[in-house]
Specification:
By secondary structure, this protein is mainly α. It has helices at about 1-15, 25-50, 60-90, 90-130, 135-190, 190-229.
Length: about 230
């Protein structure tokens, strides 16, 4: 299958030392590529869970198992790339990017764990249905109940996805602020005179503000003194 070919190709590159020959930028590009593949397979797994009427059927179960195994393989490759990147990076910005990639992997693990629990619940429920409701009417009622549960899970899943999207947006905003701060620190380190001038301007502005406040207060006091006294 396509998933199997991707995994075999990635493992081959890993075992042959291909990953170790990559630079920092190439390693990060490979991490981004694997994250995209992982995200797509998690979406596929979620769709398979939603579409399956009987998740314990042989064909559906094999397909779901295959996708889960591929996702776990991606996790192993991402961990290896994270370790390689940690050995090579030195700048604070690269360390921040690596931490973001590790957070993405943790989110992927959480999503997969939720889906695996959901699949286990499907299997357990189907076994109970087979024991308690062998008749057609009972089977239809159980299926409607299962569909209702799936609908509720979809709503919860949508809320979780929205929260994750918000978290990702906040992380991007934090990354932007961090890059600006890092650029400012770099400029100050390379050109200390600029930093000194900025500090002098800030102190002068603060002094002018204090003088202006004193004058305004004095004028107000004189106004009150001559008008009301």
């Amino acid at each position: 299958s396509t998933w199997g070919q991707n995994i075999l190709s990635n493992h081959f590159m890993s075992q042959q030392g291909h990953y170790r020959s990559l630079g920092v930028d190439s390693t990060r590009s490979e991490i981004v590529r694997l994250e995209k593949l992982t995200e797509n397979d998690i979406k596929l797994l979620r769709r398979l869970c939603n579409e399956a009427d009987t998740p314990d059927e042989e064909s559906g179960s094999l397909k779901i198992t295959e996708v889960i195994n591929v996702i776990h393989s991606y996790f192993g490759l991402l961990e290896e790339l994270h370790d390689l990147m940690a050995e090579r990076i030195t700048s604070t910005l690269d360390k921040h990017k690596l931490q973001q990639h590790k957070s993405n992997l943790a989110e992927f693990r959480t999503d997969l764990q939720q889906l695996e629990r959901r699949i286990s619940e499907h299997l357990r429920r189907n076994q109970l249905i087979g024991k308690r409701l062998p008749d057609k009417g009972g089977e239809m009622s159980a299926r409607r109940e299962r569909n209702s549960i799936l609908a509720c899970e979809d709503v919860a899943g949508a809320a979780i996805q929205q929260a994750l999207a918000t978290q990702e947006a906040l992380a991007r905003q934090q990354d932007t602020i961090f890059r600006i701060q890092n650029s400012t620190d770099t400029v100050n380190q390379r050109f200390p005179l600029i930093g000194t001038l900025v500090d002098m301007i800030s102190r002068k502005k603060q002094r002018n503000d204090i003088i202006m406040a004193v004058w305004v207060g004095l004028l107000l006091w004189l106004f009150v003194y001559f008008v009301f006294l």
